[in-house]
Design a protein that fits this description.
Elements lengths: L4 E5 L11 H10 L4 E7 L9 H5 L7 E2 L2 E10 L19 E5 L12 H12 L6 E2 L11 H10 L3 E5 L2 H4 L4 H14 L3 E4 L12 H9 L12 H11 L10
Parallel strand pairs: 1-2, 2-4, 4-5, 5-6, 6-7, 7-8
Antiparallel strand pairs: 3-4
Length: 246
């Protein structure tokens, strides 16, 4: 399987990442990727860029070195009602939004499965969100069987996150279960690196090995072909409104 886009990445604007936006795009070019999304952390995360960073994303060209650049954010889910930290006047600058739960941005130490399930059910209804980010974390388990089909119905892509194989190892069994349910219920997924350094862009080896183990259908992997990915963008993103991409 060939992955043609990496749609969850971070730049030095997230102060625990170490490459510039141009370095990340250049890495995507070297990996022959069709697209990259730059999704720095929303403002609730410690060390995140300020609101003007996201408001000013409009100055980033959608095409650099022949790579489609999606202007985005990894927004934080900030409570168990599914509220997020994108500011209203920044929504219009976003081509791509990943929604994730991070302990640093959500107040409760030990949420129940029911609370996390409620958060994700409400996230599924949010029209501004594209990707359900690394949702296999043990601490934030939810009712996979109930929520994952709703993600599919609402056009949300369930992420298989390459970085989970290194930084969230305890979540790997949950990630496998989530992928099994996506396969069973026909819910589209997306494979991303969540890279915080340019050399990691486009490196999907562990994720692809898991999909191969599960005999996961390629047609459910939205970023496994340019045509599938473009079709999703036309339905769920504003990026092709840019006259330069017509």
């Amino acid at each position: 399987m060939n992955i043609i886009a990496d749609t969850h990445t971070h730049t030095i604007a997230s102060t625990h990442a170490y490459s510039t936006l141009q370095e990340m795009v250049h890495a995507a070019y070297l990996k022959k990727l069709y697209a990259i999304a730059v999704t720095d952390h929303g403002i609730t995360m410690p060390g995140a860029p300020g609101r003007w960073y996201f408001h000013n994303l409009r100055i980033i060209p959608h095409l650099l070195e022949g790579v489609l650049v999606l202007r985005g954010q990894e927004t934080n889910i900030i409570d168990f009602d599914g509220n997020i930290d994108i500011e209203a006047d920044c929504v219009g600058t976003m081509d791509w939004v990943v929604a994730s739960i991070h302990a640093e941005a959500i107040p409760k130490e030990r949420p129940t499965v029911e609370e996390v399930t409620n958060a994700w059910m409400n996230i599924a209804k949010n029209p501004h969100i594209n990707v359900i980010g690394h949702s296999g974390t043990n601490k934030y388990r939810y009712d996979y069987e109930s929520v994952i089909p709703e993600f599919g119905r609402q056009g949300k892509l369930v992420e298989l996150n390459e970085s989970s194989f290194f930084g969230r190892e305890s979540s790997i069994p949950n990630c496998k279960r989530i992928m099994e349910i996506c396969k069973k219920r026909g819910v589209p997924i997306i494979v991303n690196t969540d890279s915080h350094f340019s050399s990691l862009v486009g490196c999907f080896d562990h994720s692809l090995a898991l999909l191969d183990e599960l005999d996961f259908p390629e047609e459910l992997v939205v970023n496994s072909s340019t045509e599938r990915f473009q079709a999703y963008l036309r339905e769920y993103s504003q990026v092709f409104n840019d006259p330069l991409l017509q």
